[in-house]
Amino acid sequence: MKKIIFLADMEAFYASVEVARNPALKGKPVIVCGDPKKRHGIALAASKEAKVFGIKTGMPSWECINLCPKAVFVRPHMSIYIEVSLQITEIFEQFTDRIFTYSIDEQFLDMTGCEGLFGTPWEMALKINKKVLEETGIRSRIGIGENPLQAKMACDQFAKKNQHGIFELLSQSYANYCWPLPIRDLFGVGSRMERNFHWIGIFTIGDLAKRPRDAIKKRWGINGEVLWLNAHGIDYSNIETEQTDERKGVGHSMTLPRDYKEQKEIEVVLLELTEEVCRRARRLGKVGKVLGVYCRGSGFETPTGFYKQQKMMEPTAATMEVYEYVLRIFEFFWDRKPVRAVGIGLDDLVTPNEVQLNLFRDRIKEMTLNSVMDKIRERYGSTSVFRASSLADGGQLFDRANKIGGHEA
Questions:
Q1: Beta-carbon neighbour count of residue 240 at 10 Å?
Q2: What does the angle CA 111 – CA 117 – CA 121 come to, to the nearest 5 degrees?
Q3: pLDDT tens-digit readout, 64-92
Q4: What mean pLDDT, rounded, does the chain reach?
Q5: How far is CA 131 from CA 93, 244, 292, 399, 405, in A?
Q6: CA-CA distance, 325 to 313, in Å (whole number)?
Q7: What per-residue confidence (pLDDT) applies to 396?
Q8: Is the pLDDT of residue 409 over 50?
């Protein structure tokens, strides 16, 4: 079976996050960097409107001002960027659990075998892009290939330059698309290596591909051989083996469609998130020791909210048992101000056989019921069985299911 590998890249990530946080910036040349009044700092990101003026990442702020006097400078908010990056990862986890984080705004996804749930690779990419945009306000581009290299080249050289933000680059078409490109566009080639290649008459990726493999390896060793393989679209790395550490936690968060002011509405969404997180833990055959609850207020100028963790009396992945802790944490720390985003995390995962049953709770019966519900949802979709509370005001289960596209109600 041929693999289906995606590389998802967020467009001008830092700048896009700032625009999503403050819609008044939409359509303006936004540059994320240090204080321009003090003439220090470099551009960390620039919106597409700023790039029109020649603004590039790494450019000094004073040069940015000269090129684009009307630019809107925004100081970086790294904690928020990390938060949004984690939120995007959680979106990807609704499509696959085989994910490798390449950077804060780039992730590889192994979508092999997911066609039955989400359609063709192109259809899967469309659904992922749509969901990321709807939930975060950020546009993503996806390169599709049979290995990580092909996906990376597809994204960097083609998906970023077309209107769909998607490009499929397969082994049979690799030479046709990539060999005419300048050698500097080959993944792994820096400015120094570009000069070395130019010195011996290699100016395009095709030029390198047509040279004898042994000659390239003899001149530049294993690094040269890897570049030769890259020129042929060959990559032996495996996403599944890239992540060697056992997973320590599962989580899910969402930005609400409007500000939630009523506690009952918020509690409905918290239950839905708890259900989703516990289901993922059970799918892994794990239970959690530590619960985390995240809440972000609607204020922009003065952000409000909290993130609190609590160790539970006993490790569990039973939905209602975890939900009891969620409610206690939320009720204690919520400041009664409108809420715009919430999240749940289950951490310090362990196997159930390490857990002693609570004699004061029929946990076996509860876990059995959870397992039956999980199997029904896996087979018939997330809305095939649900709690009545999801029909109440504030419920997001059906809306989220429709947005995924794979399990419409």
A1: 11
A2: 45
A3: 999 999 999 998 888 888 889 889 999 99
A4: 83
A5: 12, 28, 24, 11, 9
A6: 10
A7: 52
A8: no
Question: Any idea where the domains of the chain sit in the sequence?
Answer: 1-178, 179-239, 249-404
Pairing state of beta strands 140-145 and 166-168? parallel
Distance CA 148, CA 234 (A): 9
| Residue 97, CA distances (Å) to 112, 182, 188, 253, 383 in order | 11, 35, 27, 16, 20
Closest CA to 285 of 325, 246, 245, 314: 246
Question: Which candidate in 49, 83, 90, 106 is catalytic?
Answer: 106
- Kindly report which listed range (50-54, 157-161, 232-236, 395-399) carries the lowest average pLDDT score: 395-399
d(CA 198, CA 200): 5
Any catalytic annotation for residue 106?
A: yes
CATH dotted code for 1-178:
3.30.70.270
Highest mean pLDDT out of 194-208, 299-313, 351-365 = 194-208
Q: SS in 3 state form for the chain? A: CCCCEEEEEECCHHHHHHHHHCHHHCCCCEEECCCHHHCCCECCEECHHHHCCCCCCCCEHHHHHHHCCCCEEECCCHHHHHHHHHHHHHHHCCCCCCEEEEECCEEEEECCCCHHHHCCHHHHHHHHHHHHHHHHCCCEEEEEECCHHHHHHHHHHCHHHCCCCEEECCHHHHHHHHCCCEHHHCCCCCHHHHHHHHHCCCCEHHHHHCCCHHHHHHHHHHHHHHHHHHHCCCCCCCHHHHCCCCCCEEEEEEEEEEEECCHHHHHHHHHHHHHHHHHHHHHCCCEEEEEEEEEEECCCCCCCEEEEEEEEEEEECCHHHHHHHHHHHHHHHCCCCCEEEEEEEEEEEECHHHCCCCCCCCHHHHHHHHHHHHHHHHHHCCCCCCCHHHHCCCCCHHHHHHHHCCCCC
Looking at domain 249-404, its CATH class is alpha beta
The Cα 252–Cα 273 span in angstroms is: 6
The pair of three-digit structure tokens given for residue 365, joined into one six-digit string:
């019966």
CATH class of 179-239: mainly alpha
